[in-house]
Specification:
The chain is of the alpha+beta class. The protein has a domain of 93 residues: Immunoglobulin-like. It has 1 helix and 8 strands, in the order H-E-E-E-E-E-E-E-E. A 5-stranded mixed sheet has the order 2-8-7-4-5, with no helix packed on it. A 3-stranded antiparallel sheet has the order 1-3-6, with no helix packed on it. Strand 7 and strand 8 form a beta hairpin. The protein is elongated and about 105 Å long.
């Protein structure tokens, strides 16, 4: 049971903290005067608000198509366009395989096309290997420069389905060669 004195003290503190601050501020403010009422004989001038300007209607410029009206029928979503993988390092002119595309799926008789044309070239060669192997097998080689033409042909039906690497290597007259152009393809017969 709460004693009456303790309850009164608690109530007083609550009033002081809860309401006392606002009451004290109101008491500390000087009284505000009420403006006098206008004389009934005084003529009031009506106040007319200024008109708000209305912007002109928007007209599309000749280069912009008119805005499309919303359609209540949802349009079908199209699948994303297949992305063409960027060529790996070493695949830049004058040593590049342009077809088949890097990270593509191929089947049947494929033509490996591209460019093998550098100054001081002794020969070029196209090789392939299964992704599970580390040993490349020579597919074709030549001593003449090739520019945007067929480097080799390969029937994917002669090999099991899977991931393969094709590479173009240009060997210089001094026996050195740079970074080969290697592309990854999937045989899918």
């Amino acid at each position: 049971m709460i004693r009456p004195r303790l309850f009164a003290l608690w109530l007083g503190l609550a009033v002081c903290f809860g309401f006392g601050c606002r009451t004290a501020n109101l008491l500390a403010e000087p009284p505000t005067s009420i403006p006098p009422a206008p004389s009934p004989l005084a003529r009031a001038t009506p106040t007319i608000p200024a008109p708000t300007p209305v912007p002109p209607p928007l007209t599309p410029s000749p280069s912009e198509p008119p805005p499309a009206s919303p359609s209540p029928v949802a349009s079908p979503t199209l699948p994303p366009a297949p992305s063409v993988a960027a060529l790996p390092a070493g695949c830049a002119s004058p040593q590049v395989i342009t077809s088949p595309a890097h990270e593509s799926a191929v089947s049947g008789l494929i033509e490996v096309t591209g460019t093998a044309n550098t100054a001081g070239m002794q020969y070029w060669k196209v090789e392939y290997r299964a992704e599970t192997s580390t040993e490349y097998i020579v597919l074709n080689r030549g001593e003449k420069a090739i520019v945007n033409d067929v480097l080799a042909r390969l029937s994917t039906k002669t090999l099991p389905n899977g991931v393969y690497w094709l590479r173009l290597v240009i060997v210089q007259k001094d026996g050195n060669f740079g970074t080969p152009c290697e592309i990854r393809v999937t045989f899918a017969n």
